[in-house]
Amino acid sequence: MIKMTQNINFPEKSDFPSLLELKNVTIVRGGRKILDSVSLSVGHGEHVAIIGPNGSGKSSLIKTFTEEYYPLASAEGLVLNIMGKRTWNVFELRKLLGIVSGDLQQTYCRQVSVLDVVLSGFFSSIGIYYNHKVTHEMEARAREVLKFLEISYLADRLMSELSSGEARKVLIGRALVHDPEALILDEPANSLDIKALHSFRETIRKIADSRKSIILVTHNLEDIIPEINRVILIKDGKVFMDGKKQEVLTNANLSELFSLPVEVLEKKGYYQTMI
After folding, report:
1. What is the largest CA-CA distance in the chain?
2. Host H or E run for residue 143
3. 3-state SS string for 99-133
4. What's the structural domain count of the chain?
């Protein structure tokens, strides 16, 4: 068992050059290209923000990583590598990539205990069912994760009783319980008030201090934590820009990305936009 009372420690993955790698990936849904010849890679332990307007293809990238969407064959040489492999069992893949999204929170707004929600991460399910065998080791691990996230006191509460901020932390616990290689956050701060947003960002910063990769997908610059040092801009299903945070998050780049005049403000590693 990995103790999570301090930082989480993960093994080195030097055998694989990248955690995730896409080359010339095109996705078509409903007769429309939602990703168009996208090439990018994310290294082990790298913290990356993927930013774009609604409908730009951000969430489609996640669904490509998790093999919910399948790329078209490409004459230019399609590559979709995850941990050095091109073919994965979907259930094994989900254990490598812990995902937290607002949509998942809506699914979990029901009479399920917090502990069961975290345990369900072992089974990639929504709750615990009769055919799930929960071992003592699993429960111990789930409680370690709750302790790491400083929400042990919520273990017996129902998800339907929690605030949005509390529920979001529980879903992070569900994503972390099987020690995935990367935590993928899809529009993670939607519906959070100022206090909940601060608490959420501090939690992500704590996770980022480990070797686990953080992949943040958002349209809101306020979600970006100081530990993220690389930003990928997505527009119309294509990589618009990819580089160091300070070089990418400029007035000119964000104005072109969102097609309106934008002023970018930075303070102590946090960003926001003014229109």
Report:
1. 55
2. helix 136-148
3. EEEHHHHHHCCCCCEHHHHHHHHHCCCCCCCCCCC
4. 1
Residue 211 counted as domain residue? yes
12 CB-near residues (< 8 Å, 6+ apart): 44, 211
* pLDDT, tens only, 122-131: 887 777 777 7
Report yes or no on 134 lying in a domain. Answer: yes
| CATH number of 145's domain | 3.40.50.300
In a domain, 14, yes or no: no
Nearest to 221 by CA among 253, 185, 168, 266: 266
* pLDDT tier for residue 61 given thresholds of 50, 70 and 90: confident
d(CA 23, CA 121): 30
pTM: 0.85
- Answer whether residue 3 is part of any domain: no
Determine the structural domain holding residue 182 and report its residue range.
20-274
Residue pair 91/124 in contact (Cβ under 8 Å)? The answer is yes
